[in-house]
Amino acid sequence: MTVPRVWSCLFVWTAAATLTTSRATSTILYTKVNGSETLTCKCPDHKCQEVFWYRYLETNNSFEFLLYFNSAGSEKHENNANKHRLRGFLSSGEMIYTLRITGLQTDEAGLYSCMFKTKHMIPDGYYIRPGVNPPTLHPPTVKPEKPNRSCRSCKPFAPKGCMSSVLWPGIGALLLLAGILAGTLFYFSRLPKKCRHPFAKTNQLR
């Protein structure tokens, strides 16, 4: 058994032990059928020289080793039939390993992740669901604003500002009526007094 194959068995056993936690914290990707995804795996201290990529398929509840890749650019596939669909990369300047997957099918839904040889750690990974539509998010509910109370609906114990806005127009109306009444009385007081009719004196002489 070759070294990569031995390490692939070790990381599969480790992945099986951490499967529940990885599925709960993994990133969910809703991919179209025959679509592609790019997965990344970052080394925590920039000293990772080798990485193993694997997946756990939901259809048959099985682990599969996908790809072995090292910092020198060498890669080895478990299944040569998928060699044209799986490609490994390493970003320049950073220890970020990338796996490019193309032609995803519905029966390939499951958890995809990696494991560094020297770190014996498994990142959260990606939960890929080909052919599944993402859930529709409901728009956020907006609470209706409370309408401002107008002074027309003032109660007996209304606020001071509301009472003043009602009181001042009332005082103005009373002053206007008082002015009109005073003007009317003044007008009639200035009218000349009526004289008695002349025939009234004639009747008195008789």
From TrEMBL:
| A single GO molecular function term of this UniProt record | coreceptor activity
Record's bilayer topology term: Single-pass type I membrane protein
The record ties this protein, via Pfam families, to: V-set (PF07686)
An annotated GO cellular component of this protein is: cell surface
Recite the UniProt keywords alphabetically: Adaptive immunity, Disulfide bond, Glycoprotein, Immunity, Immunoglobulin domain, Membrane, Signal, Transmembrane, Transmembrane helix
Q: Which residues cross the membrane?
A: 166-188
> What's the protein here called?
Ig-like domain-containing protein
Source organism per UniProt: Triplophysa tibetana
